[in-house]
From TrEMBL:
Residue span(s) of domain Signal transduction histidine kinase subgroup 3 dimerisation and phosphoacceptor: 149-200
UniProt xrefs under Pfam families: HisKA_3
UniProt lineage: Bacteria, Bacillati, Actinomycetota, Actinomycetes, Bifidobacteriales
GO cellular component, one term: membrane
Species, as recorded: Bifidobacterium animalis subsp. lactis (strain AD011)
Database matches in Gene3D superfamilies: 1.20.5.1930, Histidine kinase-like ATPase, C-terminal domain
Keywords noted in UniProt: Kinase, Membrane, Transferase, Transmembrane, Transmembrane helix
One annotated GO molecular function: phosphorelay sensor kinase activity
Regions that span the bilayer: 20-45, 52-77
Protein name, per record: Signal transduction histidine kinase
């Protein structure tokens, strides 16, 4: 279109006018190489044309305006809003210079034409904002995946390794061959299961090349509460069995009627609490879970000798507290006379 119009007007143009008429197509082609500088150059040419009327008549036709429309979209997309908006407004006002100089009344066509300049500039801004929003959403999803992987490492992999380590320590003091053989079988199964979880839940997602393969099979997304009651029941049965096999004596009491949402909340906490009991506790423990208008979870156990706090590195409890805060729950931890107590309420 640009070349066709240039050829149409070319026979009637002198050398100076020909050079100026060639300028707009050249600048338009340059947008593909350096978008911002060439787009700004097009706007400058258009503003000068409107102010001084030194360019030939071709520049008042579609040739200029096709290029200006393109330039305004590029400027809106590439430049910060504090620069793009004033440039767009100046270009739009420039379309009305003719009317202002010759005192011609403005009509709907004049206003509509100026509005197309404004729309082009703001369209570029909208495209940029949409791209930035998509980038932020992508970063948020990637961050959520990384957090999920860290939680899997801490809750499942770390908990299983702590369990296997405690079984190994107990086996060192075991003298009965049959009991020792049983303990070694349990240790082997635990380590094999942990290795499988590590491959499935950590190595595969990190090395995967497609988003679909980053799904963690064993851990259900915390934002999905469907089936939470069933998962909580399985965990309530699983955790005491693991603790008992590691030499702990205790119970998990559950009362009240749970909803999927409240069961999901408790299930998030239970594994971490039992891991802390396993790593830092000794002898007995008690976990009481009550569902109702308010969901409460209270866990207490004796702290092992040499353990100053339930989680000396604080990483597990800090992550748990952050997760609970996101779900609208509060957590308190206290220690008195060698008894560690953790309370959660929502």
């Amino acid at each position: 279109m640009l070349v066709f119009e240039w050829l149409t007007y070319w026979p009637d143009l002198n050398g100076f006018e020909t050079a100026l008429s060639t300028l707009i197509p050249v600048l338009t082609l340059g947008v593909a190489i350096m978008p911002v500088p060439f787009s700004l150059s097009i706007i400058v040419v258009e503003v000068l044309r409107g102010i001084f009327y030194i360019f030939p008549v071709v520049h008042s036709g579609p040739t200029v305006y096709y290029s200006v429309w393109l330039a305004l979209i590029v400027i809106g997309y590439e430049m910060p809003a504090k620069y793009a908006i004033p440039i767009t407004v100046i270009a739009a006002l420039d379309t009305m210079v003719d009317n202002a100089i010759f005192q011609v009344p403005f009509d709907a066509n004049d206003i509509g034409f100026a509005a197309t300049f404004l729309l082009d500039g703001f369209a570029g801004l909208a495209i940029r904002r949409n791209k930035e929003f998509a980038r932020l959403r992508y970063e948020q999803r990637e961050q959520a995946k990384q957090i999920h992987l860290v939680r899997t490492l801490h809750d499942d992999i770390g908990g299983s390794l702590s369990y296997a380590l405690l079984l190994c320590r107990n086996a060192q003091a075991e003298t009965d061959p049959d009991t020792l053989r049983t303990s070694l079988e349990t240790i082997t199964q635990t380590v094999e299961s942990t290795l499988a979880d590590l491959r499935t839940n950590i190595i595969t997602p990190l090395s995967a090349s497609t988003p679909a393969s980053t799904a963690i099979s064993r851990n259900v997304d915390e934002s999905t509460t469907t089936g939470s009651c069933a998962r909580l029941c399985q965990n309530v049965l699983r955790q005491p069995a693991l603790l008992e096999q590691a030499g702990f004596n205790g119970t998990i009491h559950v009362s009240g009627e749970a909803t999927d949402e409240s069961a999901n909340l408790v299930n998030i906490c239970l594994t971490e609490i039992c891991n802390n009991i396993l790593k830092h506790g000794t002898h007995s423990y008690v976990v009481r879970i009550r569902f109702g208008e308010r969901t409460t979870l209270v866990a207490s156990n004796e702290i092992a000798a040499g353990e100053a706090q339930p989680d000396s590195a604080h990483h597990g409890l800090e992550m748990l507290e952050s997760r609970l805060h996101d779900l609208g729950a509060a957590m308190t931890v206290s220690e008195e006379d060698g008894i560690w107590t953790l309370a959660i309420e929502r």
